Model the fold of this input.
Amino acid sequence: MTAPLNLLWLQSGGCGGCTLSLLNAEQPDLFQRLEDAGIRLLWHPSLSRESGDEALAILRACAEGRERVDLLCIEGSIMTGPHGSGRYHLLSGTGRPMMDWVRELTARARHTLAIGSCAAFGGITALGDAGAVGLQFSGDQPGGLLGGAYRSGSGLPVINVAGCPTHPGWVLDTLLALALDRFSAADLDLLQRPRLYADHLVHHGCPRNEFYEFKASAEKPSDQGCMMENLGCKGTQAHADCNTRLWNGAGSCLRGGYPCISCTEPGFEHPGHPFAETPKVAGIPIGLPTDMPKAWFVALAALSKSATPRRVRENAVADHIVVTPAVKKTGLK
Done:
């Protein structure tokens, strides 16, 4: 019988939101999914019974190579301050900086995963002065704590399961692919995110796509229209499958009426403008779709707006349907 894979999970500089999101895994639930995949949760600071000396004994056994670490998940950024000492974040009971523990454990790990945008790129915590960095990136620049040359025991770089928070499916699908030995460097994009979700855009499956097509824009938060032009939505630029792999089986930011803030991307935490506002130059949004030239977009927008049906135009600036679709024969059978 094949021995289960050991999963060790550490939380560094973050809010714990990725763990809270992970607990929403369903059909089956988190623990059943891990068991089915042959993954043993060796230790998690929030989900395991061991604490204090018992927990430290597990970490020491892993760091010294006495306990196998097949899957090492780091949640939260690495605090390197002050002055590179890492003493802003000491692992309780050890007197040692968390970044030193992370270095030792990543040297032992068969696979290393950065869970969330903080662990991947620095994220929200990088806004402060604690020297917060990702495991192998600082923002969009390779480096971070481990350096661009780091490879885990499998030969892979850090797997950046970015998001703020991550969708439980992104984490579990990646872990399952690793457990099945069906994950390789070809399954990572240029920012080392799993392509199973990063090859998509949040725009795909957006319930407001008809409004986007006609450039019928929302003007205030309660409006039903497209939020790209005025309300800061970056769904056409953000790499994630949020609107096709729904959250809690039913929702997404956009379905809840809030614009996509591109939380899977490095640097999302400091866009240079309020999240729910769209900066413009000469009336043109600066954040255009990733793969469309600006001149094409402007031409398409002008044409689309001139052809906008009354139903779409009026519903875009209302909080409910005010004009219903016409009922008529279309010739389709």
